[in-house]
């Protein structure tokens, strides 16, 4: 079967990565727009670069969890595409081979001159780190106010899916939240989140629990089909 999996911060929380707006999360002490917008970068690039340097260091210290690994194993019997709002590489490290990063990738940087010039980057990114065109490099992250370039590709993936699985996302942040509307009427949908924003209905079955346990239950249901 063709399965589209939409994931958010909740799937990586159990690996030790802070969730997006967690009260103790990485945004604390920073106005979100000061570290995640083009205006913030223009106003204080050193602050923004340091913010993502800290996130990059944290990412390199954690490992994929049960949910990441279970979703990767799902590829053994099905065509699986992960559409993630996460900027970490934990899906890939767990073994998933088809991953669409809606909001960019923390372990990549890009040129401020040519947005298509993207480089792998695992160390600190500093002011003065230039691309080949002598322009500053920036995090390869989709900031607030910027377009989400892969959203149309993601919508087509959901439209073609036989099953849609949503894991660890509030489904409140657009445009990603609108992807579920592209699911076919006959496609079963599963939603795994400890604090789900919706309830089970004829279209969506909800597992109100953390990703590591909920994903295993969803996979069990899929394999029984």
SSE pattern, N- to C-terminal: EHHHHHEHEEEEHEEEH
Summarize the main sheet: 6 strands, parallel
Q: Find the count of extended strands (DSSP E, 2+ residues).
A: 9
The CATH homologous superfamily of the largest domain is named TPP-binding domain
Distance between the termini: 10 Å
Determine the structural class based on helices, strands and strand pairing: alpha/beta
Overall body shape: elongated
Named CATH topology of the largest domain: Rossmann fold
Tell me the radius of gyration. Answer: 18 Å
Helical stretch count? 8
Q: How are the strands of the largest sheet arranged?
A: 3-2-1-7-8-9
Helix content: 25-40%
Poorly predicted segments: none
Beta-strand level of the residues, as a percent range? 15-25%
CATH top-level class of the largest domain: Alpha Beta
CATH architectural group of the largest domain: 3-Layer(aba) Sandwich
How would you describe what is shown here?
The chain is of the alpha/beta class and 225 residues long. It folds into two domains: 1-17 and 64-103 and 147-225, TPP-binding domain (Rossmann fold, 3-Layer(aba) Sandwich), CATH 3.40.50.1220; 19-61 and 107-141, 2-Layer Sandwich (SIR2/SIRT2 'Small Domain'). The protein is built from eight helices and nine strands. The strands form two sheets. A six-stranded parallel β-sheet has the order 3-2-1-7-8-9, with helices on both faces. Strand 4 (104-111) and strand 5 form a beta hairpin. Helix 5 runs parallel beside helix 8. The protein is elongated, with a radius of gyration of 18 Å. It starts with a strand and ends with a helix.
């Amino acid at each position: 079967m063709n399965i589209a999996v939409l994931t958010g911060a909740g799937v990586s929380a159990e690996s030790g990565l802070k969730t997006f707006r967690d009260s103790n999360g990485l945004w604390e002490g920073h106005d979100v727009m000061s570290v995640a917008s083009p205006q913030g970068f223009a106003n204080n690039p050193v602050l923004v670069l340091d913010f993502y340097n800290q996130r990059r260091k944290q990412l390199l210290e954690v490992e994929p969890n049960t949910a990441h690994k279970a979703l990767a194993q799902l590829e053994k019997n099905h065509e699986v595409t992960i559409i993630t709002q996460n900027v970490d590489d934990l899906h890939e490290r767990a073994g998933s081979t088809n991953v669409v990063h809606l909001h960019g990738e923390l372990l990549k940087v890009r040129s401020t001159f040519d947005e298509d010039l993207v480089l792998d980057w695992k160390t600190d990114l500093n002011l003065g780190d230039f691309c080949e065109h002598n322009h500053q490099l920036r995090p390869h992250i989709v900031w607030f106010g910027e377009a989400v370039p892969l959203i149309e590709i993601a919508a087509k993936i959901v439209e073609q899916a036989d099953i849609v699985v949503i894991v660890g996302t509030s489904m409140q942040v657009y445009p990603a939240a609108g992807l579920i509307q592209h699911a076919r009427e006959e496609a079963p949908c599963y939603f795994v989140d400890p604090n789900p924003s919706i309830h089970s209905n004829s279209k969506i079955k909800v597992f109100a629990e953390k990703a590591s346990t909920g994903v295993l239950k969803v996979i069990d249901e899929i394999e029984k089909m």
